[in-house]
Amino acid sequence: MLSTHLSSAWTAGFTVCASLLISIGAQNLYVLRQAVQGEHIRACVTWCVISDALLVTFGVLGMSQMLLSYPELAYYLTLGGVAFLLAYGLFSLRRMLVATDAALPGDQGQMRSRSLRNVLGALVAITLLNPHVYLDTVLLMGSIGARQQGAGRWFYVLGAASASLSWFLLLAFAGQRMRRVFAHPKAWRVMDGLTAVMMFGLAWWVAGSVWDLGD
To answer: Which residues cross the membrane (predicted)?
Structure first.
């Protein structure tokens, strides 16, 4: 009976996390880009899995309730997220419009490698400054996980971490398989343009919630 309960909790965590991860978002696009470039991808996958597990854990342990109890905290967090999404979108748009073909990552001869610190620093910012992450992992997944009983909560977090690991490994593999496509500089322009549109769209959507919180 106990094993059935724990298995059910793991399955719930895996299923909910997987359904939220399979979408085109800032973090996914960044990891895909790093996989295509073959640059610090193991570190990126490791960070994504650990951050997902920690954020879900915080939600299960009560952070989701704290954010609901203190709307001003959610307001400032979301406001900062809007600013970040706009800045990241503008950066991607500038990279698409201004970069010459010779300077694009698709040109293997001119590709400039970035340090692990710079790559992870950008990924940490994309993860933690995106309010969408908190809505998904802390509020939604946290509130569902908090309903589990006893050890079921930790199996729920384990299931979520398993889904995260599976997804980002798949994303890394897909990125490596797509290197031939991105050998053409124009493919990078398309990715940057897609990233810019996605970031502006998310910023607009999140801004609506800021106005609601401010009322």
So the answer is: 12-32, 44-67, 73-94, 115-134, 154-175, 187-207
